[in-house]
Amino acid sequence: MAKKRIQRIGVLTGGGDCPGLNAVIRAVAKTLMHDEEAEIVGFLDGYEGLVLDRTMTIDWRAVSNILTQGGTILGTSNTANPFGWAEKKAGKTVTTDRHKDALRVFKKHRLDGLVVIGGDGSMAIAGKLLECGMPVAGVPKTIDNDVPGTEMTFGFMTAVGVATDALDRLHTTASAHHRVMVAEVMGRYAGWLALHSGIAGGADVILIPEIPFRWDAVVRACTERARKGKRFSIVCVAEGAKPFGGEMVIERHVEGSPDPVRLGGIGRLVAGSIEQETGIEARATTLGYVQRGGTPCPFDRVFATSLGHRAACLAAEGRWGRMASWQQGRVTDVAIESVAGGCRKIELDDPLLAVARSVGTSFGD
Ligand code: F6P
């Protein structure tokens, strides 16, 4: 019997944005419109649009000229969750389950399936919708590179480029003023961004959540360099880095978010401690949201397009419940359930850690 052709597919972008979201939307839509003559419905602001029925039509015109654009034409939300819908009522946050609204809206638009472009939180929600009978396919995004089931997420390489450029710039000013420059990069509970940009930017010290650091080892790395006549040092700190026996530094809590913790502030503490213990002037720079903004690098344009194409193929073949993934240099796919809600961290035997150590980088351990 001939396979039923898909007719209508929904698409949404959830969680924090990253470069390449529009490239994925474009690839999903163009592939399905071209190969399947499918109609595409975009849900606005992540799962919020799916619950509140806020949509936009994704046609050829909508996806024209967006390949290189940062952000997402659909908007996104890192708090909207159909299974834990948070609303402020009389000054209090009240959480309700609105997943039935999501199912109703999906049905109302006569959709054959939904492509969710998001990180671990969005995939966890996609997994639950799947259990409720909604056909879902996923595409892994985030500058943090921490989604399980894929060796890389799109957006990561662009963020590595931004952070590396910042480290290069900090190098010249550090060298001119004979200072220690500390750059705090994002990454949540994983150190991928700090490790890759730290190596690319020639950081002398890289601090990551996976390797708790010792204050005296960080200080020693800087004084050792000074003793050898190097009059400046560069320290690249992941926002989730923490001292041995200590805790991560929390900047704020975002009510209603699947993970309300927002990290930030460790860079300042590290700079303060170095200055106090060594007498060398130290400054901290937090790179923040510039790492998430702007145009995707060429690699991410190709990668995001390939992942989007894969998600479109999964939809066209009716292979729901899968997430496009990158394994051993190729695009493939994995079960969404195996991904949902996890966090992929750097293994302590990752060869890149040994590479960094071999060129003299300290991890403060
Ligand atoms: O997950 C991407 C990310 O940028 C993390 O690196 C960072 O910890 C977090 O999002 C910040 O989230 P928000 O946009 O809610 O401040």
In short:
With 365 residues, the chain is of the alpha/beta class. 35% of the residues lie in helices and 21% in strands.
Structure overview:
By secondary structure, the protein is an alpha/beta fold. It has helices spanning 21-36, 47-52, 99-108, 120-131, 156-177, 192-200, 215-227, 266-278, 298-316, 351-358; strands at 8-13, 39-43, 55-58, 85-89, 92-96, 113-118, 136-140, 180-185, 205-207, 233-238, 250-253, 261-263, 282-286, 322-327, 330-335. Strands 3-2-1-6-7-14-15 form a seven-stranded mixed sheet, sandwiched between helices. The protein has a four-stranded parallel sheet with strand order 9-10-8-13, sandwiched between helices. Strands 4-5 form a two-stranded antiparallel sheet. Helix 1 runs parallel beside helix 9 (298-316) and helix 7 crosses helix 8 (266-278). It is elongated, with a radius of gyration of 22 Å. The termini are far apart. The model has no long low-confidence stretch (mean pLDDT 96). Bound molecules: 6-O-phosphono-beta-D-fructofuranose. Residues 16, 78, 142-144, 186-188, 239, 254, 262-263, 292 line the site of 6-O-phosphono-beta-D-fructofuranose.
Mean pLDDT figure: 96
- Give a short account of the largest sheet: 7 strands, mixed
pLDDT < 50 stretches: none
The strands making up the biggest β-sheet line up spatially as 3-2-1-6-7-14-15
Count helical runs.
Answer: 10
User: What is the beta-strand fraction?
Assistant: 15-25%
Count of β-strands: 15
Quaternary: single chain
Radius of gyration: 22 Å
Net shape: elongated
Distance between the termini: 62 Å
